[in-house]
Fold these 3 entries.
Entry 1:
Amino acid sequence: MARIQLRVNGATHTVDVDPTTPLLYILRNDLGLQGPRFGCGLGQCGACAVIINGVATRSCITQLSAVKAEVTTLEGLATSGGLHPIQQAWIDEQVPQCGFCQNGQIMTAKALLDRNPNPTDAQIREGMNRTLCRCMTYYRVQRAIKRAAGVMAGKVVA
C-alpha cells in the first residue's frame, strides 16, 4: 500500500492503495465518480475513458502509479455556467440509447475536439473508431460532435 496524491477535476485527493490499482477503481470506488464505467476491463471498448494530458485514456488499464497529471472525468466537463457544449450536443442530437458507452464517447470526443476543433466526418470517424457503442448510435455521435464543434467555434447551430 502507498499514499498517493491524485488530481481529479481540479481537486487533489490522497488515497492509500496498491499503486498498481487501475485508475478506474479509484475514481469509482474511492472518489465516488460514476462517469467512467467498467466495460471490458481490457481497454478495448472505451467506456472507462478519462482525459489525461489531453488524451482520452482507458482508465481500466491505467495503473494509478502511472498517472502523473490532472485527470478529467465526465463530471469535470460541466462548468459553473452549465453543461459543456459536447454534453449539450449529446442531448440535442439525442445520442444515447442505453447510455452505457456515453462516458467514453463524450470523453473521446472532447479529446478529439481539443486536438482538432473543426474535424471532418472522416476525422471524426477515425478519432472515435475505438470507442464502441453496442446500440450503434455512431451517426448521432458524429452529428453531436459536429454540433459541439460549431458551438465551440461560436457558430450558430440549429
Entry 2:
Amino acid sequence: MADFEALKAAVIKGKRQDVTAIVQAAVDAKEDLGALLDNGMIPAMREIGDKFSRNEAYVPELLIAARAMQAGLAIIEPLLAGTGRKSKGAVAIGTVKGDLHDIGKNLVAIMIKGAGYDVIDCGVNCDIAKYEEAVAKGAQVVAASSLLTTTMPFMKEIVEAFKGKVPVIIGGAPVTQAYADEIGAAGYSEDANGAVKLVDKLLG
C-alpha cells in the first residue's frame, strides 16, 4: 500500500526521484491511482501553496514541489484516462500576446492540474484565437497571465472576447485586483495557490 505521507513529503520537498519511485511502485502493485492524487499529491500542493501564501515558502520551493508533482503526474495521467476518473473541469491557460514569460504560467498550470482539473496550456504570446481554440476543446475558464505592463492591456480584449461565454481570470506581476475589476475579469490572483481557489470557486 502506498505511503501517502511519504509521497506528500516527497512532493513538498521537491524530491522528484522519490515521488517517481512511490508512484511507480503503486502502479506496479495495481493500486488505486486516484488515491495517490487525492491523499498524497493534491494535499502536498495545497500545503506548499498555503505556506507560500503565508510567506513561509518561496517561489523556488514552490517550483521544485511543482516539478516533483509533475514527475508523478507524468506516470499517472496516461493511466488515469483508462480508469474513468472524472476531471473537475477544464481550464485554458496562457501568457498574453506580446509576452513570452512562462515560469509563473507553468506554475499555475501545474497547481491547477494538481488540484484535479484538466489544463489546456496555450503557451506564451497568446492571441484571442489560441484561447478560443482551447474553449472549443472544452475549457470552462480562461486564465491569462501577463508579466509586462506593456502587454497587460491585451487582457481587456480577452475579457471582452469571452464575455457571456466563459469566465476569464487574470494574474501576473503588474496585475492587480483593481485592474481586474476595471476590465471586468471574473477574478484575480497574486499567486498560484490563489488561482486554484479561484478556479474552485468558479467550477466547484
Entry 3:
Amino acid sequence: MLKTLYLGCVADTALFRDAPKLFRQAFPWFQKNITKGDVSQELAGERVAEVVAAPGFVHAGVRWSWGNRL
C-alpha cells in the first residue's frame, strides 16, 4: 500500500527558487504567521526520522498530525 508523509511546509528552502521574487518573500511569512504550517528544515528531518524509526508508524491508511496541521 502507498504511504505518503506531509512534514509541514518548509518555506525557507530553495524549493521556490524559480517563483517570482514577491512570492519568495511573502510565502515564508504567510506560512509562519497566517497558516501556521511552516516548519524548520531540522523539524522536518526529525519528523522523517520519527516515521522511519518508530514502530507506531507501520500502519498504512492512518493519518498522524504533529499538532500544527490536521
